[in-house]
What we know:
By secondary structure, this protein is of the alpha+beta class. The protein has one domain: Glucose Oxidase, domain 1. The protein has 3 helices and 12 strands; from the N terminus they run E-E-E-E-E-E-H-E-H-E-H-E-E-E-E. The strands form 2 sheets. Strands 1-2-12-10-6-7-8-9-5-11 form a 10-stranded mixed β-sheet. It has a two-stranded antiparallel sheet with strand order 3-4. The longest helix is centred in the last third of the chain and has 12 residues, at 172-183. The chain binds zinc ion. Residues 59, 63, 65, 191, 218 line the site of zinc ion.
Amino acid sequence: xxTEPQYPGPVGRVGPYRTVCLSKIIDxxxxxxxxxxKRHKTVVQGVEDWHSDVDIVTHxxxxxxAPFHHGDLQKDVTALPPHHYVGRxxxxxxxxxxxxxxxxxxDLEAADADRILAGDIAILDSPYHSEPFVVSPDDKxxxxxxxxxxxxxxxxxxAVGFGDGICVETNIEHCLACHDILLGNDILIxxxxxxxxxxxxxxxxxxxxxxxxxxxDSSPVNVMAIEGIPGFTD
Length: 234
Ligand SMILES: [Zn+2]
């Protein structure tokens, strides 16, 4: 007889390094996006045990979007090399942007302070938090813009991520421009990140491997930040 599991928190330690899980834990019982898990008995080589059938949308919880998500772009999550999903993460706290405003080049430069390098994964946050994809009169999140996407392209980063501090979904023109510019240049988009407030450093190693399944336009990811690794710290 099994006992109920005790679920751990997002912060941990591996050897000398502090770890923070930056993903939302999905509970199929309460999740609003498509997520059905059916556990069933199975017999493998004479041993009766459990398997599960899983029916999910690829944009479930914290997810990484590949070019195949947008327009005529063709690269799915397996068409980029595995190391594209591992990098030096830089947390950019946008402290100059105005409520509901488009994020400007000046906002990014103030938050960056010359830290971002080619190949990095930029993770954005702002002082304004609101649940993504939920319409709220109190939603003051700044919006990702064409200008911001162009700045990321110039910086040659390989992914940009954010949680509930950044909006990408209410301004259609700028949402489309960001998808064109970012995904059109293999700059991945990581949405619905969590626990950014649990980070103790602004620079860390970040790992966000997608499910290794061909044809996925996007994949849920369990994002791990590892703090303190030489060469990946501030
Ligand atoms: Zn998405």
